[in-house]
Structure to design on (488 residues):
């Protein structure tokens, strides 16, 4: 009860602080906006890339399918791999014909099997504390009824085309009946909007700003996750003025949280929380979040096979690694055009949820400890990779090391005076935790196992006697969390 009262008090203080301050349209003022404690407590969120690109749902492995329109019209590709550049164009012509424009996919994006209640239930069962839905990607198609979406001369939104549904609104309503926070992704730029191509100032004034304000006012999201900012400076996007409006006047001003993608060169410099994408080993003195897909693509890619998806073990260890460094994991799923979440994605989410059900205490609400991990001897550098870093980096750092490379034997988090040591390998008999001093009131337990564990102090190290358990007695799979209370 004391913990609940303290949490409620903290939430009230944050809410009051968000409401009390008037923010000026400059980064010095805007950067004073506090990040709500719930975000740092959440640790695990689900990204959802869904739109007309979910119809063809195809690009070469190692590339983003949500960039289908750009790959198609530019005949360029970038990502992980060696490409000729016209692979998507050739696939498109073969499959749909040379005179089939990308915009025809809008009518084929039917979402007829989309059940927002089922999605929301899955997100809860997965242990996610927030979601971020692509309300509009770089192709400009909006998943909500919006006037500006049609200013290119034809209807280009989910209420008038294809699904004929307010997809943002339906999912927002369903998610808000759960404990999960609702966020929306929004792309600042659009590849082929005529104003973007020929009159960027008009695009900002007459398209982008009224459109993003409409999104905020209609749905009052908990997170506004912007992207596509890299083509122009923040001044050209009028980001400081927009954020001052968002924090001072908008319908979501008392609670909304933003990321750091507000203009060329501004990532990890200004905004709300910091973001990384397909990176590893990062840590900041500010709340931050790593985003990546389960496979490689964010949008559903029918070209990806089972082996292209990270295993549940890799995803869980990735989550633990990121949390030990003070960050959140925003893990992406890509539904198909009819609104089905592919079974392999559902399975991964449910496996993460099962693990969190046992080990959530060592994840949710925690903060960085004095050190993020306990390393073995050897070289700690991650082998250089060209392009985006694959999810197997964490397996190389834990259970499948390259000869001569060090491994992370334990990951650490802490909360309310307790330390959690999370092991990617179940210890044979004894767990050695280096540089940890027990107190006279210390108790050690394995999460999911009832009895306290025996331990002894050996110099600077704590040696814990680990119970020998049969496979069917194990509290979980993939990683095991040891709680050490009242450490000195």
């Amino acid at each position: 009860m004391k913990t609940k009262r303290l949490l409620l008090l903290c939430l009230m203080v944050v809410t009051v602080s968000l409401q009390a301050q008037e923010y000026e349209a400059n980064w010095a003022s805007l950067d004073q906006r506090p990040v709500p404690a719930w975000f740092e407590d959440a640790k695990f969120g689900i990204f959802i890339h869904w739109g007309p690109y979910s119809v063809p749902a195809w690009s070469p492995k190692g590339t983003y399918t949500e960039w289908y329109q750009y790959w198609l019209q530019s005949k360029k590709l970038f990502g992980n791999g060696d490409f000729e550049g016209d692979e998507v164009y050739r696939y498109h012509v073969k499959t749909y014909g040379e005179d089939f424009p990308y915009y025809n996919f809008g009518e084929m994006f039917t979402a007829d099997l989309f059940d927002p209640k089922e999605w929301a239930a899955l997100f809860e069962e997965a242990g996610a504390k927030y979601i971020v839905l692509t309300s509009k990607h770089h192709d400009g198609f909006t998943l909500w009824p919006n006037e500006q979406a049609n200013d290119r001369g034809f209807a280009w939104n989910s209420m008038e085309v294809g699904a004929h549904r307010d997809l943002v609104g339906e999912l927002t309503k369903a998610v808000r009946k759960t404990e999960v926070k609702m966020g929306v992704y929004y792309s600042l730029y659009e590849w082929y909007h005529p104003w973007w191509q020929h009159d960027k100032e008009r695009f900002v004034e007459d398209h982008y700003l009224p459109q993003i304000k409409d999104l905020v006012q209609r749905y009052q999201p908990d997170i506004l996750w912007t992207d596509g900012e890299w083509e122009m400076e923040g001044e050209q996007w009028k980001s400081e003025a927009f954020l001052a409006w968002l924090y001072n006047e908008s319908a979501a001003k008392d609670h909304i949280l933003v990321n750091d993608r507000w203009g060329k060169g501004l990532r990890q410099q200004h905004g709300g929380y910091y973001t990384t994408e397909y990176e590893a080993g990062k840590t900041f003195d500010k709340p931050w979040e790593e985003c990546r897909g389960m496979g490689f693509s964010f949008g559903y890619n029918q070209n990806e096979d089972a082996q292209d998806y990270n295993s549940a073990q890799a995803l869980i260890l990735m989550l633990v690694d990121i949390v030990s460094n003070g960050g959140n994991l925003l893990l992406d799923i890509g539904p198909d055009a009819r609104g089905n979440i592919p079974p392999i994605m559902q399975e991964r989410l449910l496996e993460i949820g099962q693990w969190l059900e046992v080990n959530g205490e060592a994840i949710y609400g925690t903060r960085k400890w004095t050190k993020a991990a306990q390393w073995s001897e050897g070289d700690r550098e991650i082998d250089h990779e060209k392009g985006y870093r694959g999810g197997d980096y964490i397996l190389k750092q834990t259970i499948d090391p390259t000869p001569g490379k060090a491994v992370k034997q334990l990951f650490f988090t802490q909360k309310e005076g307790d330390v959690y040591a999370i092991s990617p390998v179940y210890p044979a008999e004894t767990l050695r935790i280096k540089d940890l001093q027990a107190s006279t009131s210390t108790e050690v337990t394995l999460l999911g196992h009832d009895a306290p564990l025996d331990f002894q102090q050996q110099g600077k190290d704590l040696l814990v006697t680990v119970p020998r358990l049969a496979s069917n007695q194990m509290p979980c799979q993939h990683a095991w969390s040891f709680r050490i209370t009242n450490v000195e």
Summary: The chain has two domains: 24-362, 373-484. The chain is about 30% helix and 15% strand. The domain at 373-484 is CATH 2.60.40.1180 (Immunoglobulin-like).
